[in-house]
Every structure is written in structure tokens, then in C-alpha cells.
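Incident log, support desk, overnight shift.

02:14 A customer reports that sequence design results differ from what the structure should imply. Their input is reproduced verbatim below. On-call engineer (initials T.W.) acknowledged and began investigating.
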């Protein structure tokens, strides 16, 4: 549910009249390093720079207390947040900066693998609960998009495309997961990386296509020599099984098949059909067998065309996602807590 600016302004006025201080926090984030993506462990190593700005001298006390509520050492490489005051255009601006580095867990969506686009994100939660009559935080975007992808170190260029934008999502924690029923403001920092799929095309897809295609060579063996036909075809089946094992090692243990899994399985099942055809070929004459082989060949070609179109669509979707991120519905212009006497607070701008 998206709230109009006039409604937000009205709620800010009403909440300010209640006496509870409201702080409008402008947020930006930079991605400085992306060192590693551990696909099997579903984690990545990165370094982010986070900055929050509040106008007015009274905000300094609030930000310093917020910084103290953060962990002493969030990661091995991340120091505590730093708070200082700056002056701009005749007014004081209090800034809190935080360099966040380490290894972070990330659930990977691999249904489109290897034509996928992965979101790598870090979620920060400020230790300021949304309580009636207390200090409240409203997240704001700066007038200009100041979040950038700097990437002084990008060790993934051989297998991933360089991300183009940093996306921020403002939200609240689930009050049902807090024993006091409190909600806390969160900021999700995300970048989207599109995978380079050339390695998988040349090393898995093309060999599997050729292996399945070579099963047609059994037609050159006379129809009466079933054992020789089966010997040649079953050798190809064993090779296909080996490739299926290889693809299983490329992804973590997941409960669904990726695009690559489905293609390898499709080629494997075509080999199984050829094996069954070889077993019963002796019961048909050569003309009937040729018709069956023609039918199987046409189905194999159509299946590969279908997979190629599917892959093209997935690549287009991944390219769009890498440029546009989660879309307009996933990013709030600002989140503000609406207070009442019997609730901890609910977000007015939900994503």
C-alpha cells in the first residue's frame, strides 16, 4: 500500500503534535568490494559503506545512542559506526557512517540457472523501537540518488557481470517476532548480479546435445544386431549420467530442478527412448523403424528449440532485473510509523 505525500505530511503533523520527536533520516549506501560468491554454501563476501544523515543539532545525541546500540564488532573487518557533525548551507548535519565487511548468507534463487540474476543484500536494523510518545525514525531518500556501485575490488568478473545500481528498501521488522511486540526500522541494501552463462553452454549444454544427437548413429547398425546397437547407445547413456552428476555438483542441495538440470534430464530421456527403440527394433521392418526414428528426431529438435527460446527469455528477464532491480513496488519513498496507544507502530508505506 503506497501512501500519498499529503497523507504522510498529515500524519507527521499529527504525530509531532503528540510530542514525540521525529527524525527524518536520509540514507545512502555504496558497494566497495565484491570478493566471492560461494554458491554451494549460499553466501558471499563483500564490503558496503552505509551513511545516514540527520539535520539539526538535537539529532547528534540520538545518532550516538543508536551507534552504541550496534554490535561492538559486527564482523572481523567492520569497525563500529562513526558519528560526527558537519555544517552545510548554514545548518548542522549529523552523520553516521559504517563500513560493513564480511561474509553474508544469501538465499540463492537458482530455478533459472545458469541464466539467472542474483540479489546480494545486507539488511541493517536500527535499535530504535517504534513506541508511542518516543523518538521515531522516518527513512528518506536524498534528493538525488547518492548510492553507487564503486567496486574497487571485483573478483567475480570472469563469472558475473558488474552490477550497475544499488537498491535501497525501507521496511519494519515483524512485531510478532519480538517478545515485546516492538517494530524496528530496517534498511535493505541490494545489488543484482547477472551470471555469465558461456561456461555452462560450452561445457554442459553443447556436449549433452552432441551426446544425445550421436545416439542416431545406432541407425547405421543393422536392425538384426540388437546387442551392438544397445552397446553403443548404453555407452552414451552412461556418459549422460556422468554429466548429470556434474551438474548436481554445481548447485547447493535444493528441492527443485534448475534450467540446466531440466535440459540434461531431457537429453537423458531421449537416450532412454532410443534404448527402448533398439530393444524392439527387431519386431519392425526397416521402413517402420525409419519412421519412428524420424519422429524421435523431430521431437528432439523441437525440444531443443523450446529450450533455446526459454533460455533467451530467461536471459532477457535477468538483464532487466539487473538494471531495474526489484521494481517500483519493492522500494518505498519513505516509511513512517503511525502511533496509537495500543500498538507498537505500523509502517504507513508497505512494500
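02:41 Re-run completed on a clean worker. Output:
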Amino acid at each position: 500500500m503506497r501512501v500519498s505525500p499529503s497523507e504522510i505530511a498529515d500524519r507527521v503533523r499529527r504525530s509531532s503534535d503528540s510530542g514525540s520527536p521525529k527524525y527524518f533520516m536520509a540514507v545512502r549506501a555504496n558497494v566497495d568490494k565484491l570478493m566471492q560468491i560461494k554458491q554451494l554454501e549460499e553466501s558471499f563476501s563483500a564490503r558496503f559503506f552505509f551513511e545516514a544523515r540527520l539535520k539539526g543539532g538535537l539529532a547528534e545525541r540520538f545518532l550516538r545512542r543508536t551507534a552504541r546500540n550496534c554490535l561492538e564488532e559486527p564482523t572481523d573487518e567492520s569497525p563500529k559506526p562513526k558519528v560526527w557533525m558537519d555544517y552545510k548551507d548554514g545548518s548542522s548535519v549529523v552523520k553516521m557512517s559504517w563500513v560493513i565487511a564480511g561474509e553474508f548468507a544469501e538465499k540463492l534463487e537458482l530455478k533459472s540457472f545458469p541464466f539467472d540474476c542474483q540479489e546480494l543484500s545486507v539488511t541493517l536494523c536500527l535499535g530504535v523501537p517504534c513506541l508511542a510518545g518516543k523518538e521515531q525514525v522516518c527513512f528518506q531518500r536524498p534528493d538525488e540518488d547518492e548510492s553507487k556501485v564503486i567496486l574497487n575490488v571485483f573478483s567475480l568478473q570472469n563469472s558475473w557481470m558488474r552490477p550497475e545500481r544499488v537498491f535501497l528498501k525501507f521496511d519494519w521488522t515483524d512485531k510478532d517476532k519480538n517478545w515485546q511486540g516492538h517494530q524496528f526500522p530496517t534498511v535493505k541494501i541490494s545489488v543484482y548480479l547477472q551470471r555469465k552463462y558461456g561456461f555452462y553452454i560450452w561445457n554442459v549444454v553443447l556436449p549433452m546435445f552432441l551426446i544425445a544427437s550421436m545416439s542416431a548413429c545406432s541407425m547405421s547398425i543393422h536392425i538384426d544386431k540388437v546387442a551392438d546397437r544397445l552397446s553403443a547407445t548404453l555407452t552414451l547413456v552412461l556418459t549422460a549420467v556422468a554429466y548429470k552428476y556434474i551438474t548436481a555438483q554445481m548447485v547447493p542441495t535444493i528441492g527443485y530442478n534448475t534450467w540446466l538440470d531440466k535440459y540434461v534430464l531431457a537429453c537423458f530421456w531421449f537416450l532412454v527412448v532410443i534404448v527402448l527403440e533398439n530393444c524392439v527394433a527387431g519386431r519392425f521392418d526397416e521402413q517402420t523403424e525409419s519412421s519412428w526414428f524420424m519422429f524421435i528426431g523431430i521431437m528432439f529438435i523441437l525440444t531443443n528449440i523450446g529450450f533455446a527460446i526459454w533460455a533467451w527469455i530467461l536471459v532477457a528477464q535477468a538483464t532487466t532485473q539487473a538494471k531495474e532491480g526489484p521494481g517500483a513496488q519493492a522500494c518505498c519513498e519513505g516509511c513512517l510509523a503511525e502511533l496509537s496507544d495500543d500498538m507498537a507502530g505500523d509502517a504507513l508505506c508497505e512494500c
